[in-house]
Amino acid sequence: KIPQRNRLHQFKTENQHKLNIFHQNVDRINNKVDLLNHLLSSLKPDILVVTEHGQSEEKLSNTRLMNYNLIASYSRESNLKGGVAIYSADALDMEIESLNLDPLSLPLVCELAAVMVSCPKRKNSLHILGTYLPPSNSVEKTSEAFDILSDALASFSDKHSPVVLVGDINIDDFKAKNGI
């Protein structure tokens, strides 16, 4: 069952174009495609960010969501679960480009996928950074994850464009406070 705690986020461009972005942690997508398709048919987001899809790149590229195209993704090579995927709606009237952050992603520490969305009538673009930080991270790994996120943000070519950071970012505050 897919939890319903996630929210649909809306962003307006200067020309009042709305861009609806939805995030869902699916905890392995292979047996939840029908549920996800049903949810997408009612919410109709422009951009979908999925975390913990648990698929190889090949299997993920063959996973079909109705009326959505896979634009960017990261998959773990040898560990179960994890991963990030970004889909765009077929009807999206904006240009969307995959940004390769695979060299920055580190399995079980910080997993990333990113896209750049451009509206034809705007000069700048919007970056969407999909992120998964596993819950088992130590304080040291969390610090390393923040370094990776910082490097990812610095890699975006247009420094004046807004960035939407979306995903499943697990930080154990208890460990940080107690130095564990």
UniProtKB/TrEMBL annotation:
It comes from the Eukaryota. GO terms for molecular function: catalytic activity. Residues 21-172 form the Endonuclease/exonuclease/phosphatase domain. InterPro entries: Endo/exonu/phosph_ase_sf, Endo/exonuclease/phosphatase. This is Endonuclease/exonuclease/phosphatase domain-containing protein. It comes from Graphocephala atropunctata.
